[in-house]
Amino acid sequence: MRSLVTAALLAGSVTVLPTAPAHAAGSVVKVTGSQGDWRLTVDGSPYLVKGVTWGPSPADAGRLLPDVRSLGANTIRTWGTDASSRRLFDAASANGIKVVAGFWLQPGGGPGSGGCADYVTDTAYKNTMLAEFSRWVEAYRDHPAVLMWNVGNESVLGLQNCYSGTELENQRNAYTGFVNDVAKAIHRIDADHPVTSTDAWVGAWAYYKRNSPDLDLYAVNSYKEACGIKQAWQQGGYTKPYIVTETGPVGEWEVPNDANGVPLEPGDQAKADGYTGAWNCVKGHQGVALGATVFHYGTEYDFGGHWFNLTPAGERRTMYYAVKRAYGGNTAGDNLPPTVSVPSVPDAGAVPAGKEIVVSARATDPENDQVAYEVLWGGKYVDGGGGLVSAPMVDLGNGSFRVTAPAKTGVWKLYVKAKDGRGNVGVEQRSVRVVPPPVAGTDVARGRPTTASTFQNDGYGGCPCTPALATDGNTATRWASAWADAQWLQVDLGSVKQLRHAQLVWEGAYGKAYALKVSDDGRNWRTAYATATGDGGIDDYDINASGRYVRLDLTQRGTGHGYSLFHFGVYS
Q1: The F5/8 type C domain covers which part of the protein (predicted)?
Q2: Does residue 106 sit in the same domain as residue 214?
């Protein structure tokens, strides 16, 4: 009986019925050798994994895999296997590429990722996944593109996002025990392809060593610490070889913060050196490390894509050519990308919102190709969005450009791209702190007693977010209301003041309709300004009013959240 689906779904626990091992019609892949002298073989020939992780759609595989092959790569790694994989596998086989075929388990992707399965008690989830994985192993076991099966991605580490203490240990042991159940099931269906499991740090291997004896090899994603894997393997007393399933330059989570308090992203050359160094360390653990798939062959054009992708938007970067040299691809006749200097921005720690600034980032091209520039803004550290927006610019010559700063305050990423017209791009970036435009006069609300209808006090989003944080003069702190209309925020100026200007700096949750009112006694109110078309960002407007008390009557939210205000300034 070849199918495990019915047996798994009907079982009261994770149960796999024995079946006769099937022999693949495609390649026969084996882990052979002994302690410290292992090798991976494909149809009896030694095979060193020289790969990339795969990001594009399977529909693009036929078009892009010849380029992967030109890198000298022989392998791609995926995170999921389903019906769409056939198109990818077919294109891989046609281009002489093997696939480390992944299966996704909760909470895949490390800390902060979604899904919190209970591997101790949730038999239904485990049986469903076992049945699903078995289904696709049966579907593709004879496909010549399959190199091995990879069960899960970073879940041992990621479980710390779901559990703590003794329960975390119980879950990690149960998870790796379940991985072993999956490995057994795969081996019963497919005797000719190894099974591994990826995690995000070598500390996870202790759990696999204890609970997953049926894995043929281990796998790890490692960036900054890639060259420490060998020592960790030796100190851990492990008795299985491994592959590195993600590696490259240091990640966002591994770097110090810059002067604006956000992760200091390395430049193009430093990233290229990261790939070279990681690959050299993998090769240096001979007889144990069986290769790597570097991160990432993707075309995404966002924040993460520009940090890691070899080919964002299909444009080849310096890192692409570093991987090509590492893998022994044919570099004869290559046209290389431009090199861009780190952008220079005057007063990058305090750029007024909406102000025109001059950005300088000169590019040079190895072949003296004509270079075209593009400037982009990224709001990852402002609103969490990963997208990049091309900024209209005036080219001032000599690598200088006039651009307009974003209208929203916070720390933005500024990217300068230089394209050579031959499919290559150089990218450099820096952070820029955008602050409210200066206002002449005195902010008479600053530090004064401030009250509100409600404030958020639940620990969400860095709260408690008390009313006083809107008038403390610090645009990194905020008042946040309950998630309901209507609300109010009020400041006592201490005495009647003549007022001529107001400035509101909103967080993402802004007021669409509100009125600014003044009062001499805190009971009788006069409207100084009102709008029903607020759009967030910074509201900066003149008023002509006087009063001791100034109040925002907020009647319509611009989002489904509450009102959230970094700054409530009133100027005399």
Answers
A1: 435-572
A2: yes
